[in-house]
Amino acid sequence: MRLNLTNKDALIVVDMQNDFMPWGALPVPDADKIVPQLNAYIEAFSSRSLPVYFTRDWHPPDHISFKGHGGIWPPHCVQGTEGAQFHKDLIIPKDNKFIISKGTSRDFDAYSGFQGTLLDSLLKERGIRRLFVGGVATDYCVKNTVIGGLNLGYEVFLLIDATKGVDVNAGDTDRAIEEMMNSGAVVVAFGDLTL
Ligand code: VGL
Ligand code: ZN
């Protein structure tokens, strides 16, 4: 596949926060290994003045998704904590970047970057039509963001070399990739971009 980036394209980096790294509260195996690859995408977009959207889980301390509060997850990405910070080596461009916080109120969870956020309106007001999505976790927030984008009418590319899944059940990540493809997402890797 050969892909030329245009001003209708945006990069979406999903939840590259400490708590999803191998040292964090809700570890995604090898999540830290994709930082260099994500940085390559970030540079490719940023150097062309194309926008980069960083989603982050940004939960209150008693969030509904946490064990003991009705959910299945250990407490993670609590607002303002070190665990909620982005991986220290992730490049955050000065310009044309947006931070999208989700899961911010106690009684609602959001796996999709579109759920309860301004992401769709920010993309639409810039005329963005194609989304390139990477980050973690493939089988949760990446999957829901990709399918959310498809449902909103975007063309969506899954960055297969810049995403990692948590695999709570063996095979979840592979099934998530299949589900995204069946929903219309196109799997691409860095070498597919014409740079
Ligand atoms: C996520 C589980 C709970 C994710 C967020 O970013 O994929 N997974 N909260
Ligand atoms: Zn969460």
Automatic annotation (TrEMBL):
It comes from the Bacteria. GO terms for biological process: pyridine nucleotide biosynthetic process. Its EC number is 3.5.1.19. InterPro entries: Isochorismatase-like_dom (IPR000868), Isochorismatase-like_sf (IPR036380), Isochorismatase_Nicotinamidase (IPR052347). Residues 10-188 form the Isochorismatase-like domain. Belongs to the isochorismatase family. This is nicotinamidase. It comes from Hydrogenobacter hydrogenophilus.
